[in-house]
Amino acid sequence: MNIVDIAAPEYVEVEVDERLAKVRSIFERENPKGIVVTEDGEYAGVVGEKQLMRSRMEDDTKVSAVMKPAPSVDRHEDVRETARLLVEGDVKIAPVYEGEKLYGIITVDQILEAVLDSLDALTVAQIATEDVIGISEKDSVGSAINRLRENGISRLPALDEDGQLVGVVTTNDIVEFVVRDQERQGSGDRAGDIDRMLDIPVYDIMSSPVVTATADETVQAVVERMFDNNISGLVVTPDGEDTVAGMVTKTDVLRALTFTEEASMDVQITNVELLDTTNREHIVESIEQVADKYAAMQVIHAHVRLHAHKEKLRGTPLIQCQIRLRTNEGQVGGSGEGYGAEHAFHVALDKLERNVLEIKGINADEEYRGQLLRKLGEL
For residue 92, which of 202, 207, 253 has the smallest C-alpha distance? Predict the structure, then answer.
């Protein structure tokens, strides 16, 4: 399937020096799926509604300050490749071209709606993230913001003192709270207002009750639930329990669309533009070398996520790298930080190899115990 019948020709185009006030009014008046930003007639980036709403910049700020670069997509591109481009670009919308002419836009939701009927072959367990970062409901909003930023994520399960799931806090919850509070308070000591808001407990802004999924549900069912509730992710819980077993998001589903059954390993890189002294070929080769050392573990899909911190060393940013492998033995990952993408990747790769080796060791121990028990049974 390609995106020729999925891409929407309805879009709004503005120049990079357009004021945010006008762009906000366009969203309110025309409700477009996204806005394409151009500079002297050439494509420059995109702006989504949530992206704009999260910005607290003044109305006179130029749209170039909030636009995000996104890979351009050919109108006849395959859905699988389009999904990969969106995930690797860490964007929800992208411009669609027909030849050299801008045709329209493509969004994550448009793709998921188009392939919804085929998602019943996948289960949540196959695509969900198991290593979930949460937060206590008593922790401050400031702590939640730091945790979201440090891990490059958009949502945190909120837990009570017994570790039970009681809510979810997202970047959107925080932005909406800040906007509502400022509208209510009006003008005043902004610095003092921000300090006060950062000290408020997560309990006061989290979403509750939580919309959840179970590992054995189909991906089709959970995507429909996301659409019905106008949310982008669900907490995965054991059936009938309020503990966190994982997280599944629209991005996870989009990433699953790129999985292949080919012999070569499918590797995906989010924020690929952060690659500096290394490249995609080196990353793929390095992961394949780790996988080849442990032949019993078949890697179906690898995801490498890069996230840049503000901290720099002699101009080189501190990068966080997360590697996650989807294998026939389950999911395994590794993460690490370093100055520059290459350093961060190899720190994460070392951690990944240790974790893979641990899984192999556990499996070997279980096999040995099984052989021993069988021999004892023959005596």
Answer: 253
Rounded Cα gap, residues 67 and 69, in angstroms: 7
What's the pLDDT tens digit per position in 121-161? Answer: 889 998 898 889 999 999 999 899 888 877 778 899 999 99
pLDDT tens, position by position, 64-109: 888 888 888 999 999 988 998 888 777 888 899 988 888 888 999 9
Please give the Cα distance from 14 to 39 (Å, whole number): 9
State the Cα–Cα distance between residues 348 and 151, nearest whole angstrom.
14
- Please, what are the domains in the chain? 12-110 (3.10.580.10), 124-254 (3.10.580.10), 259-369 (3.30.160.100)
- The Cα–Cα gap between 244 and 354 comes to 25
Using the Cα atoms of residue 33, residue 218, residue 137 and residue 307 in order, give the sign of their dihedral. Answer: negative
The predicted model scores a pTM of 0.70
Burial of residue 17 (number of CB atoms within 10 Å: 0-12, 13-18, 19+): exposed
- Angstrom CA distances, 273 to 138, 154, 305, stand at 37, 20, 11
Predicted confidence (pLDDT) per residue in 197-234, tens digit = 788 999 999 999 999 999 999 999 999 999 999 999 99
CB of 127 within 8 A of CB of 112? Answer: no
Q: How far apart are CA 87 and CA 96, in angstroms?
A: 16
**CA-closest candidate to residue 215, choices 241, 196, 191, 189:** 241
Structure tokens belonging to residue 253? 């589903």
Q: How far is CA 142 from the centre of its chain?
A: 21
- The token pair that represents 166 in the structure block: 């009681």
Band (pLDDT 50/70/90 cuts) for residue 364 is: very low
| Rounded-to-5 percentages of helix, strand, coil across the chain | 40, 30, 30
Residue pair 200/212 in contact by the 8 Å Cβ criterion: no
The residue type at 270: T
